[in-house]
Amino acid sequence: MQKRSSYPLALLLLSPALLMVGLLFIYPLGYSLSYAFRNEKSATWDLSNFEKAFSLYGNDIVYTLVILVMATTLTGLFALAIGGYLTLGENKRAVSFLRWLYRWPLFIPMVVAGQLMRTFLAKNGMLNNALMSLGILDPINAMSMLDWRGVVITFVWKQLPFAALLISGAMASMDRSMIEAARNLGASRLRALVEIVIPQIKATLLVALILSFVTMLSALSVPMMIIAGSPTMITVDMAWRVNSYGDYGVANALGFISCAMSGVVAWFYLRHSVREQTATR
Amino acid sequence: MKTPLRIVALAVSAALSTASMSAHAQTTLTVLSGGSQNMVDYVTDYLGPLFEKQNAGVKVVVVGVGPDDAGSQKILEKLQAQKGAATWDVDVIVPNQQKTGEMANAGLLLKYRDSIATGKYAVSQSSKQALGVNVDGYVMPMFESQTAMAYNPDLVKSPPSSYDELRAFVTKNPKQFGYNGLKNGMSGVAFVVGWMYAYGGNATALQQGPYDAAGKASSGWNKAYADLKVFNQSVTFTPGNAGTLDMLNRGEIAMGPVWVDMFYTWKADGRLSPSLKLKLLSPGMPGQPYYYAIPAKAKNADLAKKFIALATSPAVQAEGIVKRFNWYPGIDANAVKPALDPKVWANLFTDISPADLAKNGKPFPIAPFFTDLREQYEKQVGN
Per residue in B63-96, pLDDT tens? Predict the structure, then answer.
C-alpha cells in the first residue's frame, strides 16, 4: 500500500530530470535518426538517403570501420602492456617514470593531437627529418604518413592513456596474492599477465575499449586534419554534406550508420555484462 | 568653493554626454565574407579602415565564414533564419557564385546595383549570370580570380601546357603532381572541372546550359571519371588551397593547381620561392568572381550601398584589388587600368598573358551541372 502511493511521488520528483533528458537528448537523437529515412524531395519515407550514402561513401564506411578496429585493438594491446608493467614491473624507478609519463596525452585535445601529428608525420616532418639525419632513411624514400596510418597513430596515441588509466586501476585493485602465488611457482611475468591478470580485468578492458571505440568514431578533427583527399572517415563526410550542400538527409543516414556501429559494440558489452550478472547470481 | 564644484559637475556631465553621444553615433557595418582568409584580410586591413576614415562614426566589422560552398552556405542559412524579422543584422555579404544564385532565387537579396554610381562598371558576363542564375542588378563583382597550374621550374623543365600533357607528365613522374581533391577548397574543384571540360564531352553545355539531367550518366562523364580515378593513383593529395602552395614551396610536389591571386600574394609576402611559375592549361581551367551583395532587409542598407560603391570604384579596385591583393579587377578593366602604374598592371600578367586568359580562362559550370559533377566525382572517383 505504502509502496504504491509513493510511486507517483517518485515519478513527480524524477520528472524534471526525465523531461530534460527527453527534450535535450532523446528527442533530437530520435529526430535525426528517423529523418535519415526522410526523402525531402518527394516528402515520403524511404531509403533514398541510405542509397546515396552508400553510393557516395560506401568505401569511407568500410574505411572508418577498419581504422577503428585497428586503432581499438592497438590501444587495447598497448594499454595492457602499460598496465601490466605498472602492476608487475620490478624496477621501481622505471615503473614510477612510466606512471608519470603515460598520462600526458590525456590532457591534449583531439584537434591539438591532430595538429601535432600533422607536423610530426608529414613528408618533411619531424619524424622523417629525424630518421634522415640519423642516416636510417634516404630523403628520396621519405613518404608522408598523413593517411590512414596517421589517423591510427593519432587515435592510439590519444586514447592509450585513457584505456591504460582504467586498466591499470583495475589491475591495482586486484588481489595480488594470486599473482604472487603464480610468480612463486615460477610463472614468468608475461604468463602471469596473460593467465592471471587479464582474465580478472576483462570487464574493465572491454569498457575501456568500447569507450575508446565510440570516442574515435565521433572524432571529426583528427581525420579532417590528417587525411587529405579520399577515402576518409564518415564524420568528415557528414560535415561535408551539411556544410556544403545543407543536405541533412544523407548526413543523418551516415549518422545512423555510425550509431549502428556503436550499437553493435554496445550490444556486445550489454550481452557480456548480463551474462556476468547472471553468473554471479 | 561653490563655483569650482559647479565647474567640476559641469565638466563631468559634459564628458558623460559626449561619451554617450559618440556611443550613439557609432554605427556598425557588418560584413560577412566567404572565401579564403585573404579576402577577410582585404576588408580588415584595407577596405574597412578606408571606409571608416571617410565615414566618421562608422565601424566596419568583418566576419570570415570560410571558402567554397560551405562558407557561403553559412551566409545563406543566416539570412534564411532571419527571414521573418523586420531587419537583418548583416549589411554586406561576399558570397560565392553558387550560393549567390541560390540567395537571389530565394529572394534574400536587395536589387541595388543601378542605384550606386559604380553600377555602370559592372560589365562582365559574371556580373549578370552566376552559374546560370540571373543575378543582374543584385551584385557587383568584388574581383575575378583564376586557377592555374603552379610549377617549380627547377624540377619541371618543360611544363605541360594541356591536360593531355599533364597526364603524360604524371605517368612519367608519379606523385609529383598534387591537388586538394574535392572537399578541401576550390583550387582542387577547379582542377576537376577543367578535367571534365577537357574529357567529359559536353564542355559548352556545362558552361552555358541548357541543363540536362542525363548528362551525369553519359558515357563521356563515366569515361572521364574512370580515367581520373586511375590518374589519382599517381598524384599526391594536398590538404587545401594553401596546402598545395605549402607543399610546392617545400618541394614535396613539383606542380599543382592554385589560385593565381594567392600565388602572387604569397610570393609578394616571401612565403613562396620566387622561382615558382604559373601556367594556364588548355583547353581551360575555371575562375570565379566573388560578389558584393546586400541582404534584402539589411539594417544599414544605405551605408552598405556606400560601402560597395567605394569598394567598386576604379581607384579602390586599382589600389586594393589589383595592386595589394593581386586579383583581376571585378569591374570594367578599362576603368581600372588608367588608375594604375603600367608596371603593376603588367605584373598581373607575368606568367599568364591576357590572350591566354581570354582563351583558357573559363567559368565554372552552371549550378545544376556543377552539383552533379561534384557528386559524380564522389561516387565514381572518391568511392
Answer: 999 888 888 999 999 999 999 999 999 999 999 9
- B69, B181, B252: residue with CB nearest A244: B69
Question: Both B45 and B166 in a single domain?
Answer: no
**Is the minimum CB–CB distance between B375 and chain A shorter than 8 Å?**
yes
* Model confidence pLDDT, tens digit, residues A188-237: 889 999 998 999 998 889 889 999 999 999 999 999 888 877 788 999 99
Q: How buried is residue A5: exposed, middle or buried, by Cβ count under 10 Å (0-12/13-18/19+)?
A: exposed
Across A126-155, average pLDDT: 85
Determine the Cα–Cα distance for residues B323 and A17; give it in Å rounded to an integer. 61
Taking CA atoms, what residue in B is nearest to A242?
B70
Query: Would you say the pTM of this structure is higher than 0.80?
Result: no
**Residue B1: inside a domain, yes or no?**
no
Distance in Å, alpha carbon of A65 to nearest chain B alpha carbon: 15
- Looking at the domain assignment, is residue A19 inside a domain? no
Q: Is B252 exposed, middle or buried (0-12, 13-18, 19+ CB in 10 A)?
A: buried
**CA B373/CA B295 separation, integer angstroms:** 29
Residue-range definition of the domain harbouring residue A166: 46-280
Q: Is B69 on the interface with A (CB under 8 A)?
A: yes
3-state class (DSSP) for residue B256: strand
